[in-house]
Design brief:
Blueprint: H1 6-31, H2 36-60
Helix pairs in contact: 1-2
């Protein structure tokens, strides 16, 4: 397997941490749908997650399949790097 720089793992870990917060906030909001503070936190984290994923994909390639992530315009980039679930 291709050697990946430490930044790859650091960025992936940051994405996972923010997405974990989103899962927890989703569960909380399922039972507290009117909590404005939690809604605000959720939206902030969702924007942050989107920015992190965009920056990651720009540097290291796609994170999600089935049209959720764009591929390199010059070649099919899924085979160019390990898939996120392989690291």
């Amino acid at each position: 397997m291709k050697q990946l720089p430490p930044e790859y793992y650091q960025r992936l870990e940051e994405i996972q941490a923010v997405d974990f917060v989103l899962v927890e906030l989703t569960l909380y909001l399922d039972t507290h749908p009117d909590d404005q503070h939690a809604l605000q936190q959720f939206n902030q984290c969702a924007h942050h997650s989107h920015r992190l994923k965009h920056a990651f994909e720009k540097r290291f390639g796609p994170l999600q399949q089935y049209g959720n992530s764009f591929t390199n315009p010059d070649y099919w980039s899924w085979g160019a790097t390990p898939w996120p679930w392989q690291v």
